[in-house]
């Protein structure tokens, strides 16, 4: 459980700045990173041995003196154990839950890591303008010069650090770029758009997190006295696959991508075989871990796939797909399948356990937050504790969950769930709103 720490530091002294200078400077651009100069303006708005431990990243709480993530729990209303929740009359084991059926189940899409379109082809949720892909026809810079060999780890890391709109020129065939270091966003750049054109896979090689943004990490440059609530950077990943990311040694989730602060959007992306720590009561997100979005704006996930086939899913203590604390999400026309929450003991951890095991696909914790699922398929996910599909706990009971035009099926909750909503464990303002959707055990 995360607890609020001290007040925000308004500035850094000269000595502190000097001390930090060697911590997070952007690497020198590789020769295969092309800077693009054009009169067209860019938009201004929105392998390796598996036994090698991943390099540690700064924790979600940021440097000493920075605020803890918004919505972090302080004292009251911890996640109840299965037994206490059942005693309260709010939950029941999922195997006895009733079934809500108002629409035929959507067919399962294919999985894998190939090119083309990710997401749920049977999903027809309307996508708002702010959730759509960014126009990348006039990139700021291009990774590669036309061949697979020119698309290097160093070029990707340099492009991310430089910001702007980034595309790839790696040849006609799909290519996998295995990173030798985590690519880190520098907070002085207002936006970073990564567009793989449906051909590029960024891989952590089973050794490291792939992409990192943290507005409260001084090594990536503090740009605001309120790092936990600032408008930029705006991070968009689209038409990309993120594979084999691993943050197990980093003390937090986000095996593929960790985001704290700014704004974040995912469009037409795949997340396969990502991992984070296998134990812990409140960490999660084998693919995505998010904190502190600007002005409580939601993270948008559109037309994307998490897992997609047996052996391709994410694995973490909680949230084999996505996880956050105090963050709202809008998930449209996407797929979550074959993800696992492998912790044991729930949150807070039962005596004698290490905790975790909830929200095999989606794990959300915090206070005032919302989850909207539209046109989304969640199937064949497995949680050792609660929420084989979705774990949603609003500690102050103000949060809401809505499910429209979606299918949740064959999601296993081995410990506890909410009666009448197979695959879901929910504590919030009112029962989940289910419309034109299928929920079955």
How does the SSE layout of this entry go?
Elements: H1 14-20, E1 33-35, H2 82-87, E2 100-101, E3 141-143, H3 153-162, E4 164-168, E5 175-178, E6 183-184, E7 191-203, E8 211-214, E9 234-243, E10 257-260, E11 263-272, E12 288-291, E13 299-302, E14 305-307, E15 315-316, E16 322-325, E17 329-332, E18 335-337, E19 340-341, E20 362-366, E21 370-374, E22 377-379, E23 382-383, E24 390-394, E25 400-404, E26 407-409, E27 412-413, E28 424-427, E29 433-435, E30 438-439
Parallel strand pairs: 3-4, 4-7, 5-7, 6-8, 7-9, 8-10, 9-11, 10-12, 11-13, 11-14, 12-16, 13-17, 14-18, 15-19, 16-20, 17-21, 18-22, 19-23, 20-24, 21-25, 22-26, 23-27, 24-28, 25-29, 26-30
Antiparallel strand pairs: 1-3, 2-30
List keywords for this structure.
eight-stranded parallel β-sheet, 18-stranded mixed β-sheet, 3 helices, mainly beta, globular, 30 strands, single chain, 441 residues, 28% strand
Short précis:
With 441 residues, the chain is mostly beta strands. It contains three helices and 30 strands.
Number of structural domains: 1
pLDDT < 50 stretches: 1-31, 37-66, 69-114
> How is the main sheet built?
18 strands, mixed
Count of helical stretches: 3
What portion of residues belong to β-strands?
Answer: 25-35%
Radius of gyration: 20 Å
The helix content, as a percent range, equals: under 10%
Q: What gross morphology would you assign? A: globular
* N-C termini distance: 30 Å
What is the average per-residue confidence, as pLDDT, rounded to a whole number? 81
Which structural class fits the helix and strand makeup? Answer: mainly beta
Report the count of strand segments.
Answer: 30
């Amino acid at each position: 459980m995360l607890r609020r720490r001290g007040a925000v530091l308004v500035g850094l002294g000269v000595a502190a700045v000097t001390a930090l200078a060697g911590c997070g400077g952007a690497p020198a651009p590789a020769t295969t990173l092309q800077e693009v100069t054009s009169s067209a303006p860019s938009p201004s708005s929105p392998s390796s041995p598996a036994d090698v431990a991943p390099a540690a990243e700064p924790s979600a709480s940021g440097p000493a003196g920075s605020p803890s993530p918004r919505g972090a729990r302080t004292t009251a209303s911890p996640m109840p154990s299965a037994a206490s929740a059942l005693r309260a009359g709010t939950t029941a084991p999922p195997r006895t839950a009733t079934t809500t059926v108002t629409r035929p189940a959507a067919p399962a899409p294919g999985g894998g890591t190939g090119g083309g379109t990710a997401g749920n082809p049977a999903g027809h949720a309307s996508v708002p303008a702010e959730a759509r892909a960014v126009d990348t026809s006039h990139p700021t810079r291009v990774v590669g010069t036309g061949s697979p060999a020119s698309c290097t780890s160093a070029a990707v890391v340099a492009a991310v650090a430089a910001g702007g709109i980034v595309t790839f020129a790696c040849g006609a065939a799909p290519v996998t770029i295995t990173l030798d270091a985590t690519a880190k966003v520098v907070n002085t750049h207002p936006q970073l758009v990564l567009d793989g054109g449906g051909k590029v896979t960024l891989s952590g090689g089973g050794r490291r997190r792939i992409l990192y943004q943290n507005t409260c990490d001084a090594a990536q440059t503090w740009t605001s006295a309120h790092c936990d609530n600032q408008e930029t950077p705006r991070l968009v990943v689209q038409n990309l696959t993120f594979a084999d990311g691993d943050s197990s040694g980093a003390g937090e989730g986000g095996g593929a991508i960790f985001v704290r602060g700014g704004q974040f959007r995912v469009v037409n992306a795949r997340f396969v075989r990502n991992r984070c720590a296998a134990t812990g009561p409140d960490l999660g997100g084998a693919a995505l871990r998010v904190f502190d979005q600007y002005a409580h704006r939601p993270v948008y996930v559109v037309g994307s796939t998490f897992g997609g086939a047996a052996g391709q899913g994410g694995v973490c203590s909680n949230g084999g797909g996505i996880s956050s604390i105090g963050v709202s999400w809008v998930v449209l026309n996407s797929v979550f399948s074959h993800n696992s929450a492998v912790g044991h003991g729930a949150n807070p951890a039962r005596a004698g356990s290490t905790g975790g095991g909830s929200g095999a696909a989606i794990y959300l914790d915090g206070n005032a937050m919302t989850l909207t699922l539209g046109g989304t398929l969640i199937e064949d996910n497995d949680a050792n504790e609660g929420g084989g599909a979705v774990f949603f706990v609003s500690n102050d009971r103000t949060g809401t969950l809505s499910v429209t035009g979606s299918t949740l099926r064959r999601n296993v909750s081995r410990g506890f769930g909410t009666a009448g909503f197979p695959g879901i464990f929910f504590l919030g303002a009112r029962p989940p709103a289910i419309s034109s959707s299928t929920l079955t055990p």
